[in-house]
Amino acid sequence: MAQLGAYVGPIQAIRQDNARVDDSAKDDHIAHDNPFALFDAWFAKAADTEPNDPEAVALATSTPDGFPSVRMVLLKDHGADLLGPGGGFVFYTNAHSRKGGELLANPRAAMLFHWKSLRRQIRIEGTITRVPDAMADAYFASRSRDSQLGAWASDQSAPLSSRAAFLGDIAKATARHLVGPVPRPPHWTGFCLTPTAMEFWMDRAFRLHERRRFTRDGEGWTSSLLYP
Ligand SMILES: Cc1cc2nc3c(=O)[nH]c(=O)nc-3n(C[C@H](O)[C@H](O)[C@H](O)COP(=O)(O)O)c2cc1C
Questions:
Q1: Top mutation candidate among 63, 75, 93, 157 for ligand 1, by most atoms within 8 Å of CB
Q2: Rounded Cα distance, 114 and 50, in Å
Q3: What residues flank ligand 1, with Cβ below 6 Å?
Q4: Catalytic site residues?
Q5: Angle CA(73)–CA(76)–CA(82) in degrees, nearest 5?
Q6: 9-226 CATH
């Protein structure tokens, strides 16, 4: 019976939780006009709270006949006007990799950020374009020399006979680029996901979570709450 006495019911639980969330997230309580601004607010918060790599994001691709695959990448650039009026989210990879092959054959993708420390997720869906070579060159030039040599040595996603063989590949790449800057491998580049939909999910008490989905509407966005 004592347990029954402590039971407050979902409506009161939501009210109590409103107080908690409104206090802790006044600046970024799910707003409904601009998903890029909301992304920036949550991303900044994640940079403060995550123990590492707040920019780590799951990237889902699929073959043209609809067989999906997913892996982590690092978000390296993003913005509402990045590479055109639709904006986008940019990561870098080997275009000969599994993901690269799938993206080139079927230029659609989805991303999922999950920040455990914040108990929030953001889902993004959209279309894929390769970033301009000059942008990929500039980012490649900013990486450490060892990472640049690794990009030449790694035949990403292809079978590897042994780690020793890989060390041999790295030694060969190093010997080929002993002096001067290391150029970007032509197959190593960036991809930009231009969103057609973005969904923001915030943990709330008793799994009565808060969700808002934005969908592209001409040059702007419309948004709606979703049941959790
Ligand atoms: C946190 C994290 C970040 C990663 N970032 C990248 C990245 O930015 N680019 C990349 O090509 N692979 C990255 N990887 C490795 C990929 O998850 C994956 O193993 C690799 O890209 C091959 O994927 P694929 O065979 O599906 O093409 C990352 C892995 C982790 C765990």
A1: 93
A2: 10
A3: 53, 56, 69, 71-74, 91-93, 97-99, 156-157
A4: 207
A5: 125
A6: 2.30.110.10
pLDDT in tens, 41-100: 999 999 999 999 999 999 999 999 999 999 999 999 999 999 999 999 999 999 999 999
Evaluate whether 195 touches 87 at the Cβ level (below 8 Å): yes
For ligand 1, the distance from its centroid to the CA atom of residue 72, given in whole angstroms, is: 5
* Dihedral, CA of residue 162, residue 56, residue 201 and residue 198, to nearest 10: -100
Task: Using the predicted structure, report yes or no on whether residue 3 has a pLDDT greater than 80.
Answer: no
Confidence band of 24 (pLDDT split at 50, 70, 90): very low
In terms of DSSP H, where are the helices of the chain? 2-6, 9-24, 35-49, 98-105, 133-142, 145-153, 163-176
Query: Quick check: 175 pLDDT over 80?
Result: yes
Q: Cα–Cα distance between 68 and 20 in angstroms, integer?
A: 38
